[in-house]
Amino acid sequence: YIAIVHPLRHRTSRKKARIFLLIIWALSCVLAAPCLMYSTVMTKRYNNGKTRTVCYMLWPDGRYPTSMADYM
Asked: Is the bond preceding residue 65 a cis peptide, omega within 30 degrees?
């Protein structure tokens, strides 16, 4: 719409673009913070001597892997 109605109108400045990018990055960091806070590493040892290290989410409600916090 804007490109057709106002084709020669001044576009977003570099300063505004940087502010928008900063807001987007800040919002994405806020949304990713719970994953950082509640992720944990577990090492499982099998009877045959092999080990496997797994990173998983351990939410405060304690229900893994069916926690409803995964879907909010």
From this structure: yes
For residues 26 and 14, what is the distance between their CA atoms, to the nearest angstrom?
Answer: 18
Rounded to two decimals, what is the model's pTM? 0.54
Number of domains in the chain: 1
13-64 tens-digit pLDDT: 889 889 999 999 999 999 888 888 888 888 888 889 899 888 878 778 766 6
DSSP code of residue 67:
-
Cα(52)–Cα(43) distance, integer angstroms: 6
Range of the domain at 23: 2-71
Q: Round to whole Å and give the CA distance between 29 and 23.
A: 10
